[in-house]
Design goal:
Helix content: 40-55%
CATH topology of the largest domain: Phosphatase 2c, domain 1
CATH class of the largest domain: Alpha Beta
Distance between the termini: 117 Å
CATH superfamily of the largest domain: PPM-type phosphatase domain
Strand content: 25-35%
Radius of gyration: 35 Å
Order of helices and strands: HHEEEHEEEHEEEHHEEEEEEHHHE
Shape: elongated
Length: 431
């Protein structure tokens, strides 16, 4: 062979290699463009699969994406087969090429007749090239899925170059999948935040305005859930003949389940409070209404229900394990309305009642939950019941709203930027 022939041959070979390289470069560029302008990952996957198969020369192909919640590889794009007939593949499936590649995080070229899984039969004919889809995080590679190719045209074999090209594309796909996950997580977070805000607004609407007991009494109240929804609440009732019913409750948790118990209690009390002016009888009826829900949720409810009768100069109450219930007298003396029974959901006996004198115009009813007195600062120090009562005593001659404002100013000043660990509720009333 002459030098001219050798030169011509080398030139043709170089041209062929340049052409192949150009096709690969053009493919990578095209896929980058596809991923950059496509919002829907499934649509992008189908387009990418067609581009890969056209360049590599594969008749059948699939892109599987790992679903962490189920541990399955789900086909999101299929070529050369009916996508409806494709089923997810468990990542621990020993007969599956895609599952093995996902587990080992290594490309695999499987000859015809080896590792033939029925789940991969629709997208396999002959040898199969399978490459993991990876996302490179700061802590290392994270497998997200698998690309499989089969049925090479003209009975050609898959080459190391094919594997290298598909691996490069799989990296691009991995980036797209991760971005898709982050976008969906962001959308889900925003939706959840919106729904929680709506739930918070709904729960706040369930709480009555303190004005509902006017003119029989002057009242102020405030509830601050630790989460958007919580289990601390209050309720107010005009019972006729100048009598006022006041309820404060604390469900043994916070969040959705606590909010559910709170809503059920509010609804049931609206009925039972109007049927009797005896706090013990009212709370007994309430327990009958809530017992099934308390058992099912394994929660309990501490509450204090007070009925004030100014005409008789009497305060009657039932207290099921609620520690922070007081009457503050004109001279600043704070008398605790001690618990008459354990929290609802823990005891089996019917709630009992108690009574004391009530001095119209001077006595101040103060009910709050432990989220107020147990508020912690950035060093973990508890505010304490005594400091709360000090503010109440100092402002006892002022309007109830001023008392509530003073207590929450104390709580917020103590906590600073610390997020509250528990719901907070406070009710102050004077008749």
């Amino acid at each position: 062979m002459s030098e001219l022939d050798i030169a011509v041959r080398e030139a043709k070979l170089a041209a062929q290699q340049l052409s192949e390289s150009w096709e690969e470069i053009n493919l990578l560029y095209s896929i980058g463009e596809i991923l950059g302008r496509t919002v829907n990952l499934d649509d992008a996957a189908r387009t990418i699969l067609n581009e890969i198969s056209e360049t590599v020369g594969a008749k059948r192909a699939a892109i599987f994406v790992h679903e962490a919640s189920s541990g399955l590889l789900r086909p999101v794009a299929v070529l050369g087969a009916d996508a409806a007939k494709m089923k997810p593949i468990a990542i621990d499936d020993e007969s599956s090429v895609a599952a093995r590649v996902f587990r080992t995080q290594r490309p695999l070229l499987v000859p015809e007749g080896e590792l033939e899984s029925p789940l991969e039969a629709p997208v396999r004919t002959g040898a199969m090239l399978s490459v993991p889809i990876m996302w490179t995080s700061p802590t290392g590679g994270v497998p997200l899925g698998v690309v499989t190719l089969s049925g090479r045209r003209a009975s050609e074999r898959f080459t190391a170059g094919d594997q290298k090209l598909v691996a490069a594309i799989a990296t691009q796909i991995g980036t797209a999948i991760q971005i898709d996950h982050l976008v969906k997580a962001s959308v889900a977070t925003e939706r959840l935040a919106h729904e929680m805000q709506l739930a918070h607004e709904l729960q706040m609407r369930l709480l009555p305005s303190p004005n509902v007991v006017a003119p029989d009494a002057t009242c102020a109240a405030r509830v601050e859930p630790a989460l958007s929804v919580g289990g601390d609440f209050y309720h107010l009732f005009k019972l006729g003949q100048g009598r006022t019913g006041v309820l404060i409750g604390d469900v043994s948790s916070h969040g959705y389940q606590a909010a559910l118990i709170m809503a059920l209690t509010m609804s049931a009390m609206a009925i039972h409070a109007q049927n009797s002016d005896d706090p013990a009888r009212t709370v007994t009826s309430l327990l009958a209404s809530l017992s099934d829900e308390l058992k099912q949720t394994e929660m309990f409810l501490s509450l204090c229900y007070v009925v004030i009768d100014p005409e008789r100069g009497e305060l009657r109450y039932a207290n099921t394990g609620h520690p922070h219930a007081f009457v503050v007298a004109a001279d600043g003396t704070a008398e605790r309305l001690t618990a008459t029974d354990p929290p609802l959901g823990l005891g089996t006996e019917e709630p009992r009642g108690s009574r004391r004198a009530w001095h119209r115009g001077s006595d101040l009813l103060v009910l709050f939950t432990d989220g107020v007195s147990d508020a912690r600062d950035d060093r973990g120090r508890v505010l304490g019941e005594a400091r709360v009562l000090d503010v109440v005593k100092a402002r006892r001659a002022e309007a109830p709203q001023r008392v509530v404002d003073g207590v929450f100013a104390l709580v917020e000043g103590h906590m600073g930027r610390v997020t509250p660990e528990d719901d907070q509720a406070l009710v102050v009333l004077r008749s």
